[in-house]
Design a protein that fits this description.
Layout (H helix, E strand, L loop, with lengths): L11 H11 L7 E10 L5 H7 L4 E9 L4 H11 L19 E6 L3 E2 H25 L2 H12 L1 H11 L6 E9 L4 H18 L4 E6 L2 E7 L3 H8 L3 H15 L3 E7 L4 E3 L4 E2 L3 E2 L1 E2 L24
Antiparallel strand pairs: 1-2, 1-3, 1-4, 3-9, 5-7, 5-8, 6-7, 6-12, 10-11
Length: 300
């Protein structure tokens, strides 16, 4: 095996920039959540049959409990595990072409996650007790399976326990935008967002499938008052109109409810480094953290 570990981080400065301008500081009840996923959308039929990768498989989760860049970076590094630690259904290491490292743009509410996990454990306990009373071997087997895997459920509830986030995410899954018309449409979208939210209040993040547009939540009320309707709907409608007029292929443009985006600075599907395109819009007063001066050992 030429490279024995999964690789995600490709641009440390990009990650530092995203930490500085996009990741708001944690409150005492909050944590950061990142996860690795395998998605077969970039594989052809023969590759899917060979590797046996599902449509979307979350295979590792990291919860970062401290508001510290060095701890966040270590969480990213823990995702870069030995390839033999995580295998496909046919026992093969995941190919680079399916890998994504996601970050939740809203911190997770650890207090809410605590109660969600307690509910899950009580449900497993009830299932075991009911199965014992009914003398149901299959029910007992399923209950103990849930109990044995309760640690993974404990991590998963963090992914669903959102706290108040800094950003709204609009996921634009589009193709064929690298034309004169396409570039003009994207400029129009940026001009619209700048006019409606103000400079430095949105991020254009390029991924392999198009763009994630992060819109600062504090600007949405003004858009809603101006247009007297849902601000996310206004933004989605404008993006659809601009892309359609430019002949861009639109797979979907939607408000992203799961609040997960590919983490800037990491490589997506083995070939694209996720990047924020409009860094120049962000002045010093837009910082959410101080710029990290942390250096990894291997950089020395």
């Amino acid at each position: 095996m030429k490279n024995p570990v999964y690789e995600f981080l490709k641009d440390l400065d990009e990650l530092k920039w995203f930490w500085t301008y996009a990741m708001r500081p944690l409150k005492q009840n909050e944590v950061f959540f990142i996860s690795t996923s395998a998605r077969n959308k970039r594989l052809d039929g023969e590759e899917r049959a060979f590797f046996q990768v599902g449509r979307s498989e979350m295979w590792h989760k990291e919860i970062i409990t401290e508001d510290d860049f060095s701890r966040f970076l270590r969480g990213v590094r823990r995702c870069e595990a030995n390839k033999l630690a995580y295998l496909t259904q046919n026992g093969m290491p995941y190919p680079a072409g399916v890998l994504v490292l996601y970050v939740n743009i809203a911190p997770a509410d650890a207090y809410a996650a605590l109660f969600a996990q307690m509910d899950h454990l009580l449900a497993a306990q009830r299932e075991l007790a009911d199965s014992l009373l009914k003398n149901s071997p299959e029910g007992i087997r399923q209950a103990f399976h849930a109990i044995r895997h309760s640690h993974t459920t404990g991590q998963s509830v963090f992914a669903r326990s959102f706290s108040d986030g800094e950003w709204l995410d609009i996921d634009s899954d589009i193709e064929h935008f690298e034309t004169a018309g396409g570039r003009a449409a994207l400029r129009n979208i940026r001009d619209f967002l700048c006019e409606e939210t103000g400079r430095g209040n949105y991020m254009q993040i390029q991924t392999t499938g198009g763009f994630h547009w992060l819109i600062r939540q504090s600007t949405l009320a003004g858009i809603g008052r101006k247009y007297k309707t849902d601000p996310a709907g206004i933004i989605v409608s404008r993006m659809n109109a601009e892309c359609k007029a430019a002949g861009i292929t639109i797979n979907e443009i939607i408000k992203n409810k799961n609040r997960m985006i590919p983490l800037p600075g990491t490589v997506q599907y083995g070939r694209h480094v996720v990047t924020v395109l409009n860094k120049e819009d962000f002045s010093e007063d837009k910082k959410l953290h101080a710029w990290p001066d942390y250096r990894e050992y291997q950089e020395e």
